[in-house]
Amino acid sequence: MSQKLLKEAFISNLNGTSLLEISIGLILVPLCIACRGLLLILYNLRNGRPLRSRKYHLLLDFTVLVVPFVLGCTILSPVLPLLPITIGAFCAGLFYKIYNRRNHYIRTPPKQILHDFLKTSLEPDYIPSITVFRVFVNMLTAINILAVDFPQYPRRYAKTETYGTGAMDFGVGAFIFGNALVCPEVRQKTGVVQSKFSCLARQLSSVWPLVFLGLGRLISVKAVEYHEHFSEYGVHWNFFFTLAIVRMTASLLLTVFPTNKSWIVAMILAVFYQLILDTTHLKMFVLYGSDGKDTRVGFLNANREGVFSLYGYLAIYMASVQVGLHLLKKRTLVKDWIEVICFFLLIVFILFIFLHLSQVYVDPVSRRMANLSFCIWIVAQCLTFLICFLVTDLILVFTKLLVNGSRVPCCWNFTQPPNTNTKHDSEPTSIKRERKWLSICIINAIDKNQLAFFLLANVMTGMVNMMIDTIHSNTSFTLFVLHLYMFTNCLIMYILHAKNIILKYW
Fold first, then answer.
1. How far apart are alpha carbons 281 and 283 in whole angstroms?
2. What pLDDT is stored for residue 438 in this prediction?
3. By C-alpha distance, which of 345, 379, 439, 445 is closest to 138?
4. 420 contact partners, CB below 8 Å, separation of at least 6
């Protein structure tokens, strides 16, 4: 068997893992962010100043925010549940040490500290959880697209063939969800009257690079005979085309329907698409082609997964628009954000009930068709992910209140703590002046060039696969390659960010 066919077989006919294991893996992300934040606050407490070295920031970020996920999807995957327990215990120890050595609220009882925390005012125009969500979906995708080609990567984490839930299945849906959180319709300023077609024009100007990237990927893959998994999107289709069409179609729909009713549009799309799958021959066509023998003759047969899954991805996108609108409502107090978390928890609880009912009585989760169960699962899991980030941010805000002058990149700043007439020492005297320092981290570096990072990861994945026999690599070599690959990706983004270079011309 040729190397190409061998690699295609290596990533085919897989059934995924449990929802619980995926959730455990995702919990690692907010725990690692909390760990990084607490370490920076403890450094400030011990040294009387924040960590300002870019070199040490990069090493800290890579060690705490990247390495655990490389190890978690390779050699530590058999003991994955122990990772969040271990990191969580370490975070608890850090918080305990900071609380006991705090240099603010020294003799204040805990009840009063908590009371003041709830009345703390946060930056109203910046929600770090959205940035962190989008960056980590991108970063975890970058790790997984290369790791999946090595034998140390558990096959259950890879994309499923027809039904099931794999970690990489979640990544695809989360990428769509994350894009919708910052779409033009969501970012419209309240009170500013704009034509609905202005958002459509902005969307059109931003999706054309995706079309060209899709064409570039298609041509390059065919030219070098790179291994492909046809049941993923089809023969000629790829994710760049899906993302471009979903974004444009969503903007078209939002010129007709009110933006604040996008959740209704999402529900109608998902349910109607599932009805079509169940009441017509569409499901059989998507799975087996027009002849029932998996034919790929003709454009629609060749790309049926990519074409028809657009309905499901569009439903996910529209649901995320509603989430983005709710997140960007004007709020300042900590207690307001706790109410948001409670509201999202209620929605997640309802969605997981519907997911159970949908899997039992309608159809199991299928990324290949992007069916109703898949849509519900992605929205519920993404909301859970967002909730974890919001909780992490609030924990770090509370901890920063205890230490004067503490700084944590990509975390909320408080503008006015309660019962004070002057700003707290932890808040920069000039937000604009401090913003440059606060942006020193991998998260902000990737955020500035998200598409470039995704493209770089795809190109480097291709290069590694063409140069290395990944399937027969031993454990030590696999870990070396994955860490070198991720460090190179992060370092390039870090350098671009340090030089204030944004690779975006549209």
1. 6
2. 55
3. 445
4. none
